[in-house]
Predict the 3D structure of the following.
Amino acid sequence: MALSIEQIQAPVKEDLEIFEKKFRQSMKTNVSLLDRIMTYIVKRKGKQIRPLFVFLTAHTCGSITEATYRGAALIELLHTATLVHDDVVDDASYRRGFFSINALWKNKVAVLVGDYLLSRGLLLSIDNNDFELLKIVSNAVKEMSEGELLQMEKARDLDITEEVYFEIIRQKTASLLSSCCAVGAASANSNAATIENARLFGEKVGLAFQIKDDLFDYSNDEIGKPTGLDIKEKKMTLPLIHSLSKAGWMEKRKIVNIVKNHSDDAKKRAQVIKFVEEAGGIAYASEVMKKIEQEAYTMLNFFPESIYKQSLGQLVKYTIERRK
């Protein structure tokens, strides 16, 4: 039976509560408009998965320090900055059920808020000489940007190989979770080998997490129909990439044409979903995801036994077996 997120958080519940207070304090500002927006951002925060990875990894590698709280805050600040900017780029009005910053306060304010969050994160690290943590997280932000641009570049011709797909998701998604684990290990004063192992562990979890996300496009939602949102947005994900690699020239041309030119048509999208199911793309992606998940557990064995390591393993299971 899968554990709830509350059960997984239990060993670091107190750490997360302290972090929440410190993080709220770090978002305070004397500019009233900015303060209202910061309060809104803090209120809409979700399950705190990223700080959870930071604290569980720090405890698994050693113990929590003040640098651990700052590292978790740095990740949240820089990641939130990228999300605020993403919403402007995508002209998105909602994020996880809440109005986006740009929807409530317009694009100009949203861009400036993103810049402010970025600067707060940088100053938090510089003021405390957390240069190693800053290097880890800044590298993740760089990779996330590169991954997004690589995906946009490849989306024009929809000819993405599995190798390119993995490079995109490693940069776009896995780099953030890998930085959470690396920051946790580094903040606990771990040696270079331990930090690298933590980073690779997080990367494996991030890769498996993204493939799970890809599979949601082909699974049934509440009304019993596959969503097909990735197809609608012309995103080439692992189930489709694998299926196209096995298809004949004519069939491949037909499916690519639908994704490129008719992705707004629900009936056409249903054809693509059926093609992927019949070509074994869903089964293949599930198999790859499970293989990467097992690799993550194997990397976890590098660390000594503890309740924190146990919770990290449960968090991997929760992250990958989630239903949405």
Q: What stands out?
A: The mean pLDDT is 87. The two ends are 18 Å apart (CA to CA). The first strand starts at residue 94 and ends at 95.
